[in-house]
């Protein structure tokens, strides 16, 4: 696996799975357990239902084909990347049930969990063509403890009356896919109409006995206030899950480690990222803060040079760093990362507008990491 990761060929460009050099200050007083390392990947696969013809005009027809893209995904996930924990977005229920559940799960001794979104009003396809998020985990390294999945539009009860009043009064300017204004609605009603989900899987690392809660989500693709509120729901639900995992054991709850992954559809300077970093979000006399800040204080981009990535999403005109792994630096040490800037170099050299293409099955690139448990 190590050799494959170091020699991933993308035309004439090579993504590098390389060590992360940590600052001396960052490592003072930290004990790193010798063998307590694992790999983790987060990856938006690009559901075949979202290969919109009006969006992916720049993609050659053969590379839009789901069978072609699926073969590349199989190679990436079953061979090239095959991380110990894999968090995948835009996997369809049909694809999970018919292929990945057995191919990554039963056949190679991985466990897995999946939650599908509910079909939106415009959906005309079979229900099992709807996508969702999944988490696969290596049973040679982890014991499964528990899992739960949540529908974000059904958990608005995590907000108190003052917060709900704000959500009701806050207006969102609605736009179509081409960013044309088509109306206005309350933030509360917009949230109720969205179908995003989040998956929580609790694992015990065999070598160290460490308990992880791994989260995977895919936030809505536009409206910053919607994405921020969805993220708040996830963080508040996570707080409940940790308490349920070790009821009455406050010290044990404090030792639980969190890995929050997914396609957040949010750039590094967004409301969502600011909220996760612990910044107070203020609306008049209403101040909102991330309750899980003691468990999550950084993302992988905080620990690597800025030039390692230009984008993680290359969807035509919509480009940016949208894919994240969040953790706390007292829990995990980022030791390796698969660089991504080579993909931008490849597209520039080949005069291509974006992904997918011959070598890349999705409009996102996989974010692959290695961590040590502290």
Write a brief structural summary.
With 374 residues, this protein is of the alpha+beta class. It is 26% helix and 32% strand.
- Helix percent reads 25-40%
CATH topology: Deoxyribonuclease I, Chain A
Strand arrangement in the largest pleated sheet: 3-20-21-4-5-7-6
Radius of gyration: 20 Å
Can you put this structure into words, describing what you see?
With 374 residues, the chain is of the alpha+beta class. Helix content is 26%, strand content 32%. It has eleven helices and 21 strands. It has helices at 2-6, 24-27, 61-64, 66-80, 93-105, 161-169, 187-192, 224-245, 250-255, 271-276, 341-349; strands at residues 8-10, 13-15, 17-19, 37-44, 85-92, 110-116, 131-138, 142-151, 171-175, 181-186, 197-205, 211-218, 257-263, 281-283, 286-288, 298-299, 313-315, 318-320, 323-327, 332-338, 367-373. A seven-stranded mixed sheet has the order 3-20-21-4-5-7-6. A hairpin with a 2-residue loop joins strand 14 (281-283) and strand 15 (286-288).
Keywords:
single chain, 374 residues, alpha+beta, Deoxyribonuclease I, Chain A, 7-stranded mixed sheet, 6-stranded mixed sheet, 21 strands, globular
Strand and helix map with partners:
Elements: H1 2-6, E1 8-10, E2 13-15, E3 17-19, H2 24-27, E4 37-44, H3 61-64, H4 66-80, E5 85-92, H5 93-105, E6 110-116, E7 131-138, E8 142-151, H6 161-169, E9 171-175, E10 181-186, H7 187-192, E11 197-205, E12 211-218, H8 224-245, H9 250-255, E13 257-263, H10 271-276, E14 281-283, E15 286-288, E16 298-299, E17 313-315, E18 318-320, E19 323-327, E20 332-338, H11 341-349, E21 367-373
Parallel strand pairs: 4-5, 12-13
Antiparallel strand pairs: 1-2, 3-20, 4-21, 5-7, 6-7, 8-11, 9-10, 11-12, 13-19, 14-15, 16-19, 17-18, 20-21
